[in-house]
């Protein structure tokens, strides 16, 4: 791979993924500015991935170091975009629907905007997440994303008993679109058909049990919450950037309150009340 091809990939897939032109230009400039050592390494990575289905954090990290002075977050995005043509071909070879590949691009776009919002850089600061798509351990199906895994504990509820080691589906909620409950339910149904499983597990700030009292004015989020039997919870502020973006870290009284969700969380932080996460199980009927 050379710079011209990488820039063409950035422009082509960037447009398909509906990246802003400003982002496409910034990523293309990053591709142009990559040192020769980084381009050589990227060529090796792409050649290896063509023969296998493995992109690892070690590969990404080695490329990030070689990519300097290109910003690390821009380099992370370029690392995965360079392999998009290969991933698209692998999807075709496996007989996977084009819509599933489109959801990979949707996720890249979501992470692109998160990085811009939080760090004012076009790229990604959680790009290792993308490796799961490239390694075929994560799929975007309709609104949500799903990863097959084995249960780590026994569970009895919702009319079923699930044993440790049983097959289940891990649920993830990408940003970038409204969380319509109808879209969410269709996503579960499609995933159940895709994986032949109806046991869903989700760990998220969205399942924090205190939301029962906090979020009466957030119907979509609460509809998502009520689908789950919450079996574990804890306190944490790690996901506040998802709510406030770049504003997270400011004093609570200065946080934006332009949405119902932000108002509730800003008020709660100002009062010194706890916030956190929950882990829930959904058995699809």
Give a written overview of the molecule.
The protein is of the alpha+beta class and 285 residues long. The chain contains 13 helices and eight strands. The protein has helices at residues 3-16, 21-33, 36-51, 57-67, 72-81, 84-93, 98-119, 131-134, 181-195, 211-214, 219-226, 240-244, 260-270, and strands spanning 139-141, 144-150, 155-157, 160-162, 167-172, 199-204, 229-235, 276-283. A six-stranded mixed sheet has the order 1-2-5-6-8-7. Strands 3-4 form a two-stranded antiparallel ribbon. It is globular and about 55 Å long. The model has no long low-confidence stretch (mean pLDDT 95).
Which features would summarize this protein structure in a list?
alpha+beta; 285 residues; 6-stranded mixed β-sheet; two-stranded antiparallel ribbon; 13 helices
Topology:
Blueprint: H1 3-16, H2 21-33, H3 36-51, H4 57-67, H5 72-81, H6 84-93, H7 98-119, H8 131-134, E1 139-141, E2 144-150, E3 155-157, E4 160-162, E5 167-172, H9 181-195, E6 199-204, H10 211-214, H11 219-226, E7 229-235, H12 240-244, H13 260-270, E8 276-283
Parallel strand pairs: 5-6
Antiparallel strand pairs: 1-2, 2-5, 3-4, 6-8, 7-8
Helix pairs in contact: 1-2, 2-5, 3-4, 4-5
Summarize the structure.
By secondary structure, the chain is α+β, with helices and mostly antiparallel strands. The chain contains 13 helices and eight strands.
